[in-house]
Design a protein that fits this description.
The complex is a heterodimer. By secondary structure, chain A is mostly beta strands. Helix content of chain A is 0%, strand content 54%. Chain A starts with a strand and ends with a strand. Classes of the chains: A mainly beta, B mainly beta. At the A-B interface, strand 4, strand 5, strand 9 and strand 10 of A face strand 3 and strand 8 of B.
């Protein structure tokens, strides 16, 4: 059974850092396209970052230069390192698998982890 | 990359059909048959309902269908049921550097 479990969220002050983790089971992270998607309170979904199976990474303009997506192959885990956090980064962060055989749609999602940036 | 445009809300009575539109541009919806739709209930993670414009994942009811014409995609839900009440998001591929462009979301109310 495919499962994604995020962790690492919490309260952080503006300018601070946080690292999110997404532990996967039932498939191999390094063989798939993986993304982070966030949702600010009461708002819609916003794509944040992607890491492709070949290792290429891309970011939304809103986080470029501040966030870094990575993976640990032996732990089968996806990460999002978030630096220079701002109030507008407050959101529930979801990790998702993009199904390459299904039009790159996000077919599996984690339960989300809440990041609150506030002093 | 701008968000796709969806109506903020739609409503319908049980048993009726509703359609949610999703308008993009020639750089996203119009260029790729890679539109997906997600259902999200309050406090829950999004769930994939439609991919590649009109395909349904295993386990998704055939009451859900998708289509596309030009730069606009649509999600139709027939035979509305109370459990369909949720937020719905469209999403399009817009290139390798922007694999997911979401719409602003549509709140479906089942009257």
């Amino acid at each position: 059974e495919v499962q994604l479990v995020e962790s690492g969220g919490g309260l952080v002050q503006p300018g601070g850092s946080l690292r999110l983790s997404c532990a996967a089971s039932g498939f191999t992270v390094s063989s798939n396209y993986m993304s982070w998607v966030r949702q600010a309170p009461g708002k819609g979904l916003e794509w944040v970052s992607v890491i492709y199976s070949g290792g290429s990474t891309y970011y939304a303009d809103s986080v470029k230069g501040r966030f870094t997506i990575s993976r640990h192959n032996s732990k089968n885990t996806l990460y999002l390192q978030m630096n220079s956090l701002r109030a507008e980064d407050t959101a529930v962060y979801y990790c998702a698998r993009l199904n390459t055989a299904g039009g790159n749609a996000a077919d599996y999602w984690g339960q989300g982890t809440l990041v609150t940036v506030s002093s | 990359q701008s968000a796709l445009t969806q109506p903020a809300s739609v409503s319908g009575s049980p048993g009726q059909s509703i359609t949610i539109s999703c308008t993009g541009t020639s750089s996203d919806v119009g260029s790729y048959n890679l539109v997906s739709w997600y259902q999200q209930h309050p406090g829950k993670a999004p769930k994939l309902m439609i991919y590649e414009v009109s395909k349904r994942p295993s386990g998704v009811s055939n009451r859900f269908s998708g289509s596309k014409s030009g730069n606009t995609a649509s999600l139709t839900i027939s035979g509305l049921q109370a459990e369909d009440e949720a937020d719905y998001y469209c999403c399009s591929y817009a290139g390798s550097s922007t694999p997911l462009v979401f719409g602003g979301g549509t709140k479906l109310t089942v009257l």
